[in-house]
Write a structure and sequence with these properties.
It is elongated, with a radius of gyration of 19 Å. Helices cover about 50% and strands about 5% of the residues. It has 9 helices and 2 strands; from the N terminus they run αββαααααααα.
Length: about 220
């Protein structure tokens, strides 16, 4: 199953009503979208959903994230997307680390060794909490974020250097939209699919949480 397929499977309340947008529907039925409109921006969202205690918390979290992403302008989108991924990578690391005071020191606070987006990407990859393809996508997203964040001059997804970086992101959405997807659309889709995978990765990683242990064959008794 593709990442997009898992997205639609995990969040089965979605229905493609407003193309090329994914919106929430009460029927729970997924309809195949019609031919994409080149002029319409690609957005992913779940709309406004009533609180449902029976629904997985990741669904509500994703809804909040995508609502923020869709509301952002050209500069705000990559900055917010970077912050979202930064946060969920921190949750993955937190779920994996042993329960002791050093965990908080590593992840939180001023000058925390794993307090930056770049450090969390590297740490998750070094600890095999994300795959090589996810690492490469995150690095590309981080570079795009930095181009918007570091500097006062206006930047656009249509800038050549940013368009080239977006072209390095794999397309994980519906095949019929790939050819007409804008650089911003490719960026938004890549971020959305990573968020889906990483929100559920936290649960998986929790099962492999490290524990403080005593190691054998020590010189000291």
């Amino acid at each position: 199953m593709t990442t997009y397929g898992r997205y639609m499977h995990l969040f089965g309340e979605y229905e493609a009503l407003e193309r090329p947008c994914l919106t929430c529907a009460s029927s729970g039925t997924l309809q195949q979208p019609a031919s994409p409109s080149v002029s319409a921006p690609l957005k992913l969202h779940v709309g406004i959903m009533k609180k449902d205690d029976s629904r997985e918390p990741e669904v509500d979290q994703l809804s909040q994230f995508l609502s923020v992403m869709n509301a952002e302008n050209e500069r705000g989108l990559p900055i917010s997307a970077g912050a979202m991924l930064d946060e969920v990578l921190g949750e993955i690391l937190r779920a994996f680390m042993a329960e002791n005071a050093e965990k908080a020191r590593l992840l939180n606070g001023f000058n925390a060794p794993l307090g930056t987006f770049a450090a969390r990407i590297s740490a998750c990859y070094a600890l095999a909490l994300i795959g090589e393809d996810e690492f490469q996508e995150l690095e590309t997203i981080r570079k795009i974020r930095n181009k918007f964040a570091h500097g006062w001059k206006p930047r656009s997804f249509e800038d050549n250097s940013i368009t080239d970086l977006c072209g390095n992101l794999p397309w994980r959405g519906p095949d019929e939209y790939e050819d007409d997807a804008s650089p911003r659309g490719k960026f938004s889709m890549a971020v959305s699919m990573l968020l889906v995978d990483f929100m559920w990765r936290v649960r998986l990683v929790t099962r492999a949480r490290r524990e403080v242990r005593s190691w054998p064959n020590r010189a000291r008794t």
